[in-house]
Amino acid sequence: MIDLEKLSLDELKKLQKDVANEIKNFKDREKKKALAEVEAFARERGLNPADLSDLVKRRTRKPAKPKYANPDDPAQTWTGRGRRPRWLEEALAKGKSLDDLAI
């Protein structure tokens, strides 16, 4: 067991870096092991492992349509997703509601 209290700051930082590297290496080894198992599983069933990648689809989100517009500059819009734009916050502070700004 390592007595951490006896290590210098430089030694602790090196140890931290070494541990982070080992964690990354461990995860990489586990991924390779899992991939090898999936490939073997596919081959046992007469499938080409490369063909399986066609089944994995990335989920993509469609661009959202704007729901709110700046009454002073209609080109400035907001979809209702993410952080509220400054113009919307200012309009709300002046007493407007989201319904007032809806497109």
Break the fold down into its secondary structure elements and pairings.
Blueprint: H1 9-44, H2 49-52, E1 68-69, E2 77-78, H3 86-93, H4 98-101
Antiparallel strand pairs: 1-2
Low-confidence stretches: none
Count of all domains: 2
**How confident is the prediction overall: mean pLDDT?**
92
What structural category arises from helix and sheet content?
Answer: mainly alpha
Secondary-structure element order, as H and E?
HHEEHH
Secondary structure: number of strands? 2
Q: Within the largest sheet, what's the order of strands? A: 1-2
**Head-to-tail CA distance between termini:** 65 Å
Outline type: flat
**SS strand fraction:** under 5%
Radius of gyration, whole Å: 27 Å
Question: Biggest β-sheet, characterized?
Answer: 2 strands, antiparallel
Count of DSSP H/I helices: 4
> How much helix, percentage-wise, in residues?
40-55%
